[in-house]
Write a structure and sequence with these properties.
InterPro entries: DNA_mismatch_repair_CS, DNA_mismatch_repair_MutL, DNA_mismatch_S5_2-like, HATPase_C_sf, MutL/Mlh/PMS, MutL/Mlh/Pms-like, MutL_C, MutL_C_dimsub
CATH class of the largest domain: Alpha Beta
Pfam families: DNA_mis_repair, HATPase_c_3, MutL_C
CATH superfamily of the largest domain: Histidine kinase-like ATPase, C-terminal domain
Number of strands: 22
GO molecular function: ATP binding; ATP hydrolysis activity; ATP-dependent DNA damage sensor activity; mismatched DNA binding
Family: Belongs to the DNA mismatch repair MutL/HexB family.
CATH architecture of the largest domain: 2-Layer Sandwich
GO cellular component, one term: mismatch repair complex
Oligomer: single chain
Helix content: 25-40%
Number of helices: 18
Length: about 625
């Protein structure tokens, strides 16, 4: 029997490996940027076209490679980071598997230019689908340049699975931000389709965070600093009042490597316990330094998850350090809740001594003198106002006015008419009061058509029994169909604002808002302009208040953080659902009788009143027979 196991050709093995390493253009950006950082570069440029589908180029001024290394770097499992298995547990660099360049070269047209500082000439290599096309000597500057063109050119099926340019660009931007935030000691520049998006000079952590997130990030940050034997924690967390609906600005870096950790995220949320509104997430940029031999980073293909030796200790330290920072900067409440900060001694009065007040006594004052003297003293003299304890009563009598005796009380009635007032010629019929079986409150309750229970459900009687409506879900259905109709027929009404709203967002959120702007305008929003870090809104839909605008947009960004649907209908449907969820009346809100009637009538005027936009039932029906069965038990 012939053997059936055989070795795969190198180009097939590289394409299989590329399935794990290269999922989208952002994966190429991540690998090339990390290689540039490992090459000890101080200036890195990222250039992309068509969200990375046509071109991804990374240029650095790092160490460069020799002719031999330039050729070997495209071989599988070729790396300069490790020599033996023990090195896997003391890694201080990014890439170490030796599969990135080989995998990228297997599915794209790749061009590399590299030169070491001590060499006069560099090396220029061109590869297409794992095949070496050319290798030449060239005059080049110090460093390395990788240009990846036509990604997935030989795997059309993989290329078809890529999302729109906007979605892919957001993934590229996420990878760039993660690397740039982790290394503020490197100058980063980012170009997309010929336009400069980022120019981040060498700076500290705070300046780098503000440079990337833009907006009013600086005033939101609270510094965190804790140094222990097992971990060093540095970074910043946001103040509770700036918490958002989405989790876009949450970054953990362990030994300058971006990671995702639900366990550490829970520690951060525990530090904010009692300070955040329901559903809100804080922003944080935390840099953790731990001994390399206490972590294992080789447990996930993308290397974004790390195994710690002592997670419980890290959890406690991280939670305590954040809680301490929030309390230190008067963000979280203190134990003395009745303390008034306005009563604290100002700093410039701290070391001053109080002056002893002087006492002046009027020795000539006599409380037993006649009224004329007292009146003369009260008009001309003021010394008693500063007199001591012996002149207290005299001071009061000196300033008091003499009351003239009242005239005879009979004179108060002189001139009053004594004629009696004639009775009115009109006669009024007394209203006959009849007894009633019910009082007024009971009659009013009997005429009501709806009732609200626990500020959550609305009960309305029908012929066969009664219906119980969930007020939150019912309002969601009503608003959803209204928004969807406005976006479909493009006839939404807007209310003009007296003063335009300026709303600040990060660069990634601004890119998402730019794509959503046409759909938002069909719902009634009017945009006056957009800058690099904020938008200007001059008109809003009629069923939205000015205070709800930021909440609606934040909820929309949160719902669309995983991507915007490609089709226009799906995009409008998503926006309508998000806005309905934000604006629907919440559980716990009191509704008047008229509001209850309008809600019930509006629900049953919808095309599909049975379910909410999120496929949840909006009401249930209880028949009289069902109620009778309950009492028959």
């Amino acid at each position: 029997m012939s053997s059936i196991i055989q070795l795969l050709p190198d180009h097939v093995a590289n394409q299989i490996a590329a399935g794990e390493v290269v999922q989208r253009p952002a994966s190429v950006v991540k690998e090339l940027l990390e290689n540039a950082v490992d090459a000890k570069a101080t200036d890195i440029k990222l250039i992309i076209k068509d969200a990375g589908k046509s071109l991804v180029q990374v240029i650095d001024n790092g160490l460069g490679m020799s002719v031999t290394d330039a050729r070997l770097c495209f071989e599988r499992h070729a790396t300069s980071k490790i020599r033996q298995a023990e090195d896997l547990f003391s890694l201080c660099t990014k890439g170490f598997r030796g599969e990135a360049l080989a995998s990228i070269a297997a599915i794209a047209h790749m061009e590399m230019k590299t030169k070491q500082d001590q060499e006069e000439l560099g090396t220029h290599i061109v590869i297409e689908g794992s095949k070496f096309v050319s290798q030449e000597v060239a005059v080049l500057p110090k460093g390395t340049s990788f240009a990846v063109k036509n990604l997935f050119f030989n795997i059309p099926a993989r290329r078809n699975f890529l999302k729109s340019d906007t979605v892919e660009f957001r993934h590229v931007m996420d990878e760039f931000q993660r690397v740039a935030l982790a290394h503020p000691n490197i100058h980063f520049t980012f170009y997309h389709n010929g336009s400069e998006l980022y120019n981040l000079p060498i700076a500290g952590y705070r300046q780098r965070i503000v440079g990337i997130m833009s907006g009013k990030t600086n005033e939101k940050l609270v510094p965190v600093n804790e140094d222990t034997e097992i971990i060093n924690v540095q970074g910043f967390v946001s103040k509770p009042e700036f918490a958002k609906k989405n989790r876009g600005e949450q970054f953990f870096f362990v030994n300058d490597r971006f990671i995702k950790s639900g366990y550490l995220h829970h520690a951060v949320m525990a530090a904010y316990d009692g300070l955040l509104k329901d559903g809100c997430q804080p922003s944080y940029f935390l840099y953790l330094q731990v001994p390399p031999n206490t972590i294992d980073i080789n447990i996930h293909p993308t290397k974004t998850e790390i195994k710690f030796d002592d997670e419980q200790a890290l959890y406690a330290i991280l939670r305590a350090s954040i809680k301490h920072s929030l309390g230190q900067f008067n963000v979280s409440p203190v134990l003395d809740f009745d303390r008034d900060a306005n009563l604290d001694t100002p700093y410039y009065y701290k070391d001053l001594e109080a002056e002893t007040p002087t006492i002046q006594v009027d020795g000539t004052f006599n409380p037993f003198t006649d009224d004329k003297t007292n009146q003369h003293y009260s008009k001309s003299g003021s010394g008693s106002s500063s007199g001591g304890s012996n002149s207290g009563s005299g001071s009061y009598s000196g300033y008091s006015k003499r009351v003239e005796p009242a005239v005879s009380w009979e004179s108060l009635y002189v001139g009053l008419e004594t004629d009696t007032i004639e009775s009115s010629p009109f006669t009024f019929e007394n209203e006959e009061v009849t007894s009633s079986l019910f009082n007024d409150d009971e009659v009013e309750q009997a005429n009501k058509k709806t009732y609200q229970i626990h500020k959550k459900y609305i009960v309305s009687p029908i012929k066969s029994g009664m219906i119980i409506v969930d007020q939150h879900r019912a309002h969601q259905r009503i608003l959803y169909e209204q928004f969807l109709l406005n976006m479909t027929v493009n006839q939404a009404s807007s209310q003009q604002l007296l003063f335009p709203l300026n709303l600040f967002y990060s660069s990634s959120e601004m890119a998402l808002i730019e794509e959503l702007k046409p759909s938002l305008e069909t719902t009634g929003f009017v945009f006056d302009g957009a800058e690099a870090d904020h938008i200007v809104i001059s008109g809003i839909p009629v069923n939205i208040t000015e205070s709800e605008v930021s909440l609606v947009i934040e909820q929309l960004l949160s719902d669309l953080q995983d991507g915007i649907p490609a089709s226009s209908y799906s995009q409008n449907d998503t926006i309508a659902k998000s806005m309905a969820k934000s604006l629907a009346v919440k559980t716990g809100s009191y509704l008047t009788e008229k509001e209850q009637d309008n809600l019930v009538n509006g629900l049953f005027a919808c095309k599909d009143p049975n379910i909410s936009p999120f496929q949840k039932p909006t009401f249930i029906t209880m028949r009289v027979e069902d109620i009778d069965k309950k009492f028959a038990l």
